[in-house]
Amino acid sequence: MKQIKRILLAALVALSAVFLTAPVTIAQDTGGDSQQSSESMTLSPATSQPKLVQGQATNGKVTVINNGKTTYDFIVYARPFSVRGESYETDFETVNKYTELYQWVKFPKANFRLAPDESIEVPYEIVTPDDARPGGHYAVIFAETQPPEDSTGQSVARKKRVGSLVYASAAGEVQEQGSSEGLLTKFWQKDSPLQANLLATNDGNTHYELTSDVVYKNIFGQSVHGAKQTKIIMPGTTRRVTSQWDNPPMFGIFKVEGTVSYLGKQDTLKTRYIVLLPMKVLIGMALILAALIVWIVRRKQVAKKKPLKQSRGK
Description:
Elements: H1 2-20, H2 34-37, E1 41-44, E2 47-48, E3 51-52, E4 57-66, E5 72-80, E6 82-84, E7 89-91, E8 105-106, E9 111-114, E10 118-127, E11 135-146, E12 161-170, E13 178-184, E14 188-189, E15 194-202, E16 208-217, E17 223-233, E18 238-245, E19 252-262, E20 265-276, H3 279-313
Parallel strand pairs: 2-12, 3-12, 14-20
Antiparallel strand pairs: 1-4, 4-10, 5-9, 5-11, 6-7, 8-10, 11-12, 13-15, 15-18, 16-17, 16-19, 19-20
Helix pairs in contact: 1-3
């Protein structure tokens, strides 16, 4: 019996080590330029969706806010905007038939100075060419700080920039076409966050908005987490839209369901199941099971020895 207790105690100690051991993170101050760390710039709106007409000008504006502690100079300019891959990695360099918009953006003034706790409205104009292709055109408007120079004429700090994405659509034969692929999940997920993905494809010539409303439920059918979000799907692309649950329980079985809405229709997503079982939980369960098996085997061995001793005593 004492040996069995020692086995169970060893299993519990090992299990505790699995669950309680965690990496130690030490926060460090890496220093850096004090002026740069006190600079802060915000640009709004984050996105805009103007309607363009060939041969006409469309007015817009962005607001730059200095919510830092330092006065700084900044410039504004436009660049092409496109995306790469299903993850929608941004690309501010490639010029193609969808990204010529940056060439149409005109600023009456491009250089500014902004003091702390102040803001400036920066107007701009989009002059759409007569032969502009109908459908989507995309650009980003950047506001970029201009760090001071030292006595040698070199900048003494890194530049910072923030951008406002412009999703424009020009008049004409605009084609809005798209599709979505149901929820894609891994049945066994080893750690958090839990993720459920859907793929949205745009086969038209302009962008559209897609809204996904995904719900995680426990084994009793109770809603335990919801993730509703709206994303823009650009023409000629497929976008992976991830509905994420950052802080689920340590382990469990969950049902994932929901709807997706786009282009005036709503689809019900096929239900998926996720088993959240981290490796440390799996190892802990294996240790407990091993200890239980040893305990059962030892009990049987002890039970067999007792009748033998009794018969010898007689």
